[in-house]
Amino acid sequence: MVGRGELERAVVDVLWDAVEPMTARAVTDALTGRELAVTTVLTVLSRLEGKGIVRRARDGRAHTYEAVAGREEHTAELMRQVLDTAGDRDDALARFVGAVSPEDIEALRRALDGR
To answer: φ, ψ for residue 67 (rounded to 5)?
Structure first.
């Protein structure tokens, strides 16, 4: 049995990789290696819509789904949310920087220089 979080992640990954909104059937078909009912994928899409990660639009008789934000924007928002829970932001940021790779340090420098 696939965990709910893992399946949600797989579904949103499909939507992030898509070039246009997708029906639940198309999402189900894109989840290769998994034997899922369309109703299961619809439930996951509904859950993701409730969390504000996915938007739904009517397209004829069907609905289409797309990610509200791109993968990187979503990741950045999650990082901001986690940082907001820190009691000491300076300490949390220092610990984060102390744990990332030299490549990530350079990426952070470039990002800060570009501000």
So the answer is: -70, 140
Please state, in angstroms and rounded to a whole number, the distance separating the CA atoms of residues 27 and 73: 21
- Summarize pLDDT for 71-97 with one digit per residue, the tens: 999 989 989 999 999 999 999 999 999
Rounded CA separation 12/96 (Å): 26
Sequence-distant (6+) residues with CB within 8 A of 38 are 24, 25, 28
Distance of CA 75 to the CA centre of its chain: 7
Which residues touch 90 (CB under 8 Å, ≥6 apart)? Answer: none
Q: What is the CA 32 to chain-centroid distance, rounded?
A: 19
DSSP class of residue 66 equals: E
Record the pTM. 0.77
